[in-house]
């Protein structure tokens, strides 16, 4: 792909009347160049068992070719037709809440043989029908695929087989999972109980891990099918989504996206986020960084909001700001869900570029301006490469572990709260970061490694963190890291297991804080704060205390420590506290790691990278409703959209929700 | 009926010991003249299949005849005997929550053939037994009949037939309901899925409408049965109830009462409402106006609170005030639920006129005073006719639509919140109103028509509203009106669909307000407010702006507009705001409509009408704990209960929770 | 037992590696002398049907004997093995929520014949295997046994039989339970519906009572089995637990512990409570007093927190304070749940004496100090006998009644809230009390009897209260007492039924207060307060008003009255109000009852009793983070732990969370 993709999901199927010519013309006027189609339309593609109807698809492909638009085709398997639901009792997923009813998307059992048989047929038939169309640039496998909590017969049988493969010795299995507790011991695989009733966190977490593997297996199977048909220059992707808190929030609990992405050519995702006064760019940055980490390359934004949900209608200027925010993180596309708002069913108030009236509206008009800019300047912005000096290690296993044993007061999203707490501090301080995962074996490329709440980890990961510090790395690791192994079995020795050496501290007790203040020491002298959610009663061994508890009984313990170990430095954070206090800590530590931070902070955000011409691109954003100024201290450049030179040392003022993109000249 | 009815529900069946003589004497002492019996007593009437026992009923009828009391007989079908529940697997309703268990009333499937067979037999046997009793003045069909969420086999089959009748063409059906979305298309009626799983708002809303029709059909069937036996001078009624928010709140979602009332002779209902410091009369007024609208005539209060629920124990004087409030709205009866408090089971703390001790208590003693007054002055108050110049149009379809797609922050009762918001403003300003429904074809009798949130409406209704204004009417229409058609398919053109001409404005975007102030213009200059829940970004075309948004980005748009159209005037309200701001708007508009409002407002409330002697009756209420005064500026009259003349222009002071009823002399 | 028991639950089964020797040595170092084992380990004892494995058990018994530790053996029946769950469809309890899944403990149907058959075999096999071991001092039947909401086939059949036994006459049954209401009448026992659907509070309450009887029957059956094997000097106990509100709160709803304890030799229980700044001792006192009341003797603390839950980690000093708090209430043991923290499954964060790292930690070190003290001074503290002059009457039936018909705003624990409200006032005022239950026939031993919210009571209990006052007793009885009979049938006469004579007042109306202040009269002149949750509109007959409502309409009524009756005095409390106001009332009344209260109040708490040597032991606790002083005005004594004399009249200062134990010398 030699240009940025700009477009929207388009559903000819959902139209109340024929709009295809008008819509294509409106898209072209907006300089859109891609539509994403066919995902979730199985019932129109195959209205009855074995009866196929490609009318809508052909219309869209014809129109795309006529108007010179690219097309991304989604396989339609994430929403099944009504007739298919009646083929077998086991197609609709049986979950913790019992059998699913037909109606919703994503309600099928992705391990069900009947479902898989029909899914294969529709994919093959579809691919056969379209494989020669020139407008198709790529394929999206399914959509936002997850395991949907399947715990039906087939899935549970597969789980027992999966356990048997891991544990030939039942006694070892019982010991590792602690099944003697509450008489849960399994002494014969045929006694294995319905997993839905388990109260064993280790077993429940293993089922979650297994379920994530089902997603990887399913997507790999689809990828193999599509790959049989697709042309060399067409890509395979997925529309990954993120943990959802009314918007995209963090690491996806139900998919190991790092594993699942292996069968794909390019990572794709959707990112939805607050807007208006709540637009911060933090979700675009964090989720975008995950997406960039999946293939360690640029990625596609396959869906993001145009008008979006009720609260998201962008202020004038924000639609453009949001698009450039994505590009500044390494996205090579901005695609809206969706072109037009839908007139029936569930998501009628998740609005597209057009409202239900199909007329030009302020959002559309801003998209037109954006499209023109992307067309003119896109070649400067495409394939932005980042060479970040900081990285954050995230872990699905730790996420699941903290779902089982959450922080007090953060029961719903302990892990992502912990991860976002640290990641957003880096974001506010203008430290760009890459995302690593436990399968990454080399951290040595980074000056700063941040490991939030790595609750569950194999020995090898912990030992790699230790090595990283010994060899000169700078590590920030936060509360409850190193607590349990990969099966959520708590390590039966000094905490934090495997990290006491590099961190130079230990603890064996923790509690929930009530009125526990924090007091800075040494480099953080004068800094104060309030402990939240969870406090570990840390005893420094070789470490220096950066923050200690200001409390009649816990005052003897440290909250945050810093330890020289080998050639490196390790910071252990044993509790939560205010963002401002954290920013002071992270800024101090980043400087120790040799990172040079800009003089400004959030709401002024700087993102940078190198374009294909080897030129440095710098995005400056003002995520606030107030004008903001800063000194441009990079080498002389050109402000791209204005085509105006910017001299080093000049003072730049950004309007409310304003931004500048400056290409360095030297 | 030539006199007001005053009485209570009476259950000889529930008595811990024989009280019938004492109770009748106590009722007579209170000048009560009617009891309502037999509803919900199937298990005593038919203790075993085909074994009938009329002991309790005969005792009550005998006593009623001895003490010259009227009787209203309820058919006992809304609570089934334990033996009947065992007759078939499908008698107890299967709902979204699965099969119902026996115990509760209103848990049966009203489409179940077995239930209907036994219901017919008990009705016929009962009617045969009592049809010659002279004390019976009327029959109540079932009680608070609804559909109970039935989604069993029979109901779902009926639903598919009902759809087939409407849509001979499956493609048209799929298009109208937007079933292509998420692959929900139905290409063969035999594929029709379990409606309980649907995520299609249009389909779900249609099932709600269908379910309301089940209620109409059921009541019509019962009415036909009862009519075979009843005497000419006996009436048929129903005890309709209202959307329940710990008290009667607004339009009933589960019944189209306008349709269902067609098979009845007189409308009946129950109204429960807050009391003590929270007594405002607003529920009595709004729900009473609905009841009055059902047959466009006077109605029966078949149930209201005596002591009622814990919070409702009336302050001294309030029991009388409440009764007169009902009469002032056009009720011809005040009947309590219930005579005595119940000693077992669920509603023991929903107290009657008597406490569990059966002794005289302050509530009973106040009922005695009330009964004496009603006897003495009832002929002046009976059959009060109203000739209101204002009307409010309410719609079950719009209610369901907003249940599917609610206002932000008003998820539980979007529609009735919107309706009450406007209706209560009229109430506070002393504008009495009638209630219309979408089946009403002529609005021309009214100077002011208020249409709250008419989210779902056929073209014809919208066009009637347009015509109304063109022909000189004054219309207030509020946010989200004209958004979707009768199948909840959003109109694919300029919003508000069908109303842009008369309202002289349009919008295509909306959002949830955060810190969005309102600023008055023109006639509302100086008025301020804060937008709530939902704001439409209205652009006036020919309209004048009355309120605009005071906001850096939405300031370009209007919140409330006013437009001269034809001979009339239309006010469009594009958001919610404070009551005080609304009162200013409504007062302005009502004056434009030529209504003359009293100089006083809530808590001083004036209700008026004309009695059978052609005399004007005016009720003045002080709904507050503070004394209040006003100038009586109607022609000279008589204060009825005091039998004192009141001269025009005299100053009247009402005690806390006090009232006066003045009959105009001229 | 001639010494205090000090120890912990110990699970060799749950160990990640062999720790038994080390653990025994650490326990001995802490002067622990008892372990509690085997409860909940069925799946290790009988890994497959009929295959028994006593390895873990034998190891623990061998070690105990080697280290001279006592052992309490729990029968393992409260958690079933996975293989057993598959033996029958009816082993796992069917409850209101449907069938249970395997995984959780306490999920079986304790009436299921298959379960009982296998339970008997494991108990017999276990007893046979261990009965000669010398270290075993006693047996615990099952653990925290309850009925688990069982409403399966067997349980429901038993319920109908149980009703038939009580009611040979179906009409009498229908009348007593008020089943005519909503057509719930049962005219043939074969019509009896699934109890899970009932809306009849009387019937639901009777099922609760019946379910409590199932627990008594089950424990009695187990006791009989164990008694066949156990030696004369071994005791049988149970680990009773209490109504749970994140901690032990009050009377257990699901067990009639007074009945169930009859088959045991000594009462045992677990008490968990808030700690850190929230440690008040109130739960230890209230629940401990219930435990002491079960056999009217000393009791065992079989479980309490060491580190416990996250919020409970004790401040330095609190572990000892907590232990002595238990002893001061009459406990003869302090046993922790559990020795070590568990590395897998559900309760990993319910921490034991040791953390997961098994190392010495502050909690363990404090346990060592405590163990040494208990060893040295235990003989002075053992078998503490109390001769309290006050008693509180608690009732399972009243608890259930208020679960059905709760106080407004206290829906979840109306009864225990009401009981704790009064009991905690006595506690704060340093009035120690015994706990009585409705089966106690003699109240005459007490100068002060407090009866909270006795909502449901047989005539005989009410008449005993009346007699108590007449004969000179001082009774405090609170709102809603005497309202309904033992079947939750509301008494159909003047309220409070059966108490109007002794209390000299009556009421027939009540409501929820809004802004209702309280005003003291007579002895309480000057006292003020605010009414909460529920107010009865009390009319004094012969009584004097102590508190009246300060309100424009309810001002005519009394809130609290006091009445001389016979030789006694009765105080009726008709509402709830602030603790401070209550303390003033209770202090006044206690003095009327002739009790002499210490000059100090909470947070300074005095508990006392007589030890086996006939010496008076007084515990003085300071439940606060601030130093506190008081005058020791008892006869000269010895401060035990310090071995220092304390002279009468000397001033004693207690450190924050400090205490003293003084043995009187004379």
Automatic annotation (TrEMBL), chains A, B, C:
Gene3D superfamilies: 3.40.50.880, Glycosidases. The keyword Zinc applies. The keyword Metal-binding applies. Keywords: Glycosidase, Hydrolase, Metal-binding, Zinc. It catalyses: Hydrolysis of terminal non-reducing beta-D-galactose residues in beta-D-galactosides. Its EC number is 3.2.1.23. Residues 424-596 form the Beta-galactosidase trimerisation domain. Residues 10-376 form the Glycoside hydrolase family 42 N-terminal domain. InterPro entries: Beta_galactosidase_Trimer, Class_I_gatase-like, GH, Glyco_hydro_42, Glyco_hydro_42_N. Belongs to the glycosyl hydrolase 42 family. This is beta-galactosidase. It comes from Roseburia yibonii.
